[in-house]
Amino acid sequence: MRFTREADGHVSVLTSPDYRPLEDFLETDIGGELSELRFLAERARHARAEPWGFGGDTCHVTVGGDDVLVENDFTGQRVTLPRGEFLRILDEYAAASAGH
After folding, report:
1. How far apart, in whole angstroms, are the C-alpha atoms of residue 12 and residue 2?
2. What is residue 6's three-state secondary structure?
3. pTM exceeding 0.85
4. Do residues 66 and 83 touch, judged by C-beta distance below 8 A?
5. Which pLDDT score, from 0 to 100, does residue 44 have?
6. Per-residue pLDDT for 92 more than 70?
7. Long-range contacts made by residues 66-72, C-beta under 8 angstroms, separation at least 24?
8. Radius of gyration over every alpha carbon of the chain, rounded to an integer in angstroms
9. In terms of pLDDT, which residue wins out, 56 or 59?
10. Residue 83 CB contacts under 8 Å (≥ 6 apart), including other chains
11. How many domains does one find in the chain?
12. Percent of the chain whose pLDDT exceeds 90
């Protein structure tokens, strides 16, 4: 996964096809809303045993004990990743969005 910050501050996400739902989620549902990103990351870091979800305009994220499911509500595509990998990606996206 690669992040590119454009001159206007928009962060483009480049992923393999398997990770496309996560790309859609970051670009469409999070975009430049760093407060939403921080909320999601903080909540995912301290997830309880019970699964919980976070929905946007395009995708839905479900955080379980060890895994995170990202599903595009329109295409039906989904990707499941370990929670640690999901958190690392959110941190990298936040850093790219902040210009670091």
Report:
1. 8
2. coil
3. yes
4. yes
5. 85
6. yes
7. 68/44, 70/21, 70/22, 70/25, 71/21, 72/20, 72/21, 72/24, 72/25
8. 13
9. 59
10. 44, 47, 63, 64, 65, 66, 67, 68
11. 1
12. 42
Domain holding 31, by residue range, is 2-97
- Residue 48 pLDDT > 80, yes or no? no
**Helix or strand (DSSP H, E) at 92:** helix 83-97
pLDDT at residue 49 tops 70 = no
Query: Dihedral angle at the C-alpha atoms of 85, 46, 37, 79, nearest 10 degrees?
Result: 40
DSSP codes, 15-65: --GGGHHHHHIIIIIITT-HHHHHHHHHHHHT--SS-EEEE-SSEEEEE-S
Q: How confident is the model at residue 47 (pLDDT cuts 50, 70, 90)?
A: low
DSSP characters over 55-88:
E-SSEEEEE-SSEEEEEETTT--EEEEEHHHHHH
